Amino acid sequence: MSQLPLPPAQRALGQSDLSVSPMAWGMWRLAEGGRGVKEAAALVHAALDAGITLLDTADIYGFDGANGFGDAEALLGEVIAADPSLRSRFVLASKGGIMPPLPYDQSPAYLSAAIDASLRRLQVEVIDLYQVHRPDILAHPADVARVLDEAVAAGKIRQLGVSNFTCAQVAALNHFLTNKLVVTQPEISPLRITCFENGELDQAMMLGLTPLAWSPLGGGRLAAPETPREEAIAAALDVVAKDRGISRTVAAYSWLMAHPAGIIPIIGSQNPARIAEGASALSVQWSREEWYAVLVAARGEKLP
């Protein structure tokens, strides 16, 4: 069977000079359950020890926690402040542009203030990768671009990205930016294959954007499939999992990484053992036949 290439040891973020591991660790649940600095630091170390060098957070993560908005960033900031040597060991990514109770806000005044607030909570001078979290339909992309370019010029941000943007929204913002986007972060998993066929990944390859996949395990539904479609996808993944002696989770991560767009799955687990297990996906190789079998199961019909 024709074998697909393994992911490289390092990936550049878009056409930038930032180089990261082919997998990332996400912190949307970092601040849950009253987790303290020591426990959070253990998770950061677990990711670094697993070879993961891209850490992704957002200002809204922890919104439903003890202190509300900004909890995850603030907790990571305390981890960094307690051990400043950690900062040089990873690429720091964050996101902004959502402000409850409003849906989204990328007006110039708000977005500029949000960037400064993230820097304060994270206790850093610069965020390596700043992503607009969800598109604000009421914000003109030229205005958003101006704020982002100004933040880069001021040394607050190194590189720029977007999350949950359509192809047209990516193109519009990128058009007005002097510092072009390097990352797009959609939801991608074996359960959500929309971007394989709607042009999102094709655009990413055309523009040189690195896709970061949030919820690569379908919000945990791959572990406990309930619908016939979910069960079919799980069964297709299990064929490879059983053959390679790996878990379905690892199979799912590696399936995404086999795509030529260079997808970086974001591991969402806050369990050190599962973070380490996820990183083992880097050594799993797929055949074309196996890969397409998962896609067919996800589509629910044969390819034409």
UniProtKB/TrEMBL annotation:
Organism this protein belongs to: Novosphingobium umbonatum
Listed GO CC annotations: cytosol
Domain of life: Bacteria
Phylogenetic lineage: Bacteria, Pseudomonadati, Pseudomonadota, Alphaproteobacteria, Sphingomonadales
InterPro entries membership: AKR (IPR020471), AKR_Detox_Biosynth (IPR050523), Aldo/ket_reductase_CS (IPR018170), NAD(P)_OxRdtase_dom_sf (IPR036812), NADP_OxRdtase_dom (IPR023210)
Identification of the protein by name: Aldo/keto reductase
Residue intervals of the NADP-dependent oxidoreductase domain: 23-292
Record-level Gene Ontology MF annotations: oxidoreductase activity
